[in-house]
Amino acid sequence: MKNVIIAMLLLIGTFAFAQSAYEKAMTEKATKVQQHLTADEFTALTNDFVRIGDKEKTQWLPYYFAAFGTIQKGRLAMNEGKTAELDPIADEAQKYLDKAAELNKNNAEVFILQKMIHGLKMMVNPQQRFMSEGALAAEALSKAEKLDPQNPRITLMKAEDTYFTPEQFGGSKTKGLELFQKALDQYKVYPVKSALDPSWGKAEAEYFIAKKP
């Protein structure tokens, strides 16, 4: 009986160590992936998340952040005018997001990233792809909103779309700023489920509010 108890304690201790090692690695990397990084740094972080996910097998967050890091690399390419790179980057992000979705179905955070992936693909050629990728992006965001209507990252996506869309196509910098402020207000009260769960986006809302005339 004594040997059984010792074996159980050793098993529990090993499990607790594994969990803490996973949480430590994820917390560090999830914080870093939200920073202003180079394309190579985003690639390296993405590879780290994939390795963690492949090792853990049942955790959705490593693949979620692998997708997020890849999307961030895509947004960097978009800002630099490298639109030819967006399709392969979006396809890579989709591969990781599909794995996250398999492990955590009907998750608003997954649908928010899905919206962002369609947004990257649309920016390859906005005029040709608005009706296809733009519609899919709107559909993904709508699904996210039904699952988690108070999520500030949903409002952040709406703020970006409104702010950067030309007025002749229904956009408005004024309304966009109002939505950035709404997102910022939501960040103040939105409950984060755990230290590892997505919390990105607040800094962007603060950036645009600071630019407000």
How would you summarize this macromolecular structure in one to three sentences?
The protein contains 9 helices and no strands. It has helices at residues 2-32, 39-56, 61-79, 86-103, 108-122, 126-147, 152-164, 173-189, 202-210.
Let me know the largest β-sheet. none
Q: What is the name of the CATH architecture of the largest domain?
A: Alpha Horseshoe
**Name of the CATH class of the largest domain:** Mainly Alpha
Radius of gyration: 19 Å
Coarse shape: globular
Description:
With 213 residues, the chain is mainly α. The chain folds into two domains: 2-148, Serine Threonine Protein Phosphatase 5, Tetratricopeptide repeat, CATH 1.25.40; 150-213, no CATH class. Helices cover 76% and strands 0% of the residues. It has nine helices and no strands. It has helices at residues 2-32, 39-56, 61-79, 86-103, 108-122, 126-147, 152-164, 173-189, 202-210. The model is unreliable at 1-18 (pLDDT under 50).
Task: List the main descriptive attributes of the protein structure presented here.
disordered N terminus; mainly alpha; 9 helices; Serine Threonine Protein Phosphatase 5, Tetratricopeptide repeat; 213 residues; globular; 2 domains
Q: What order do the helices and strands come in, and which of them pair?
A:
Blueprint: H1 2-32, H2 39-56, H3 61-79, H4 86-103, H5 108-122, H6 126-147, H7 152-164, H8 173-189, H9 202-210
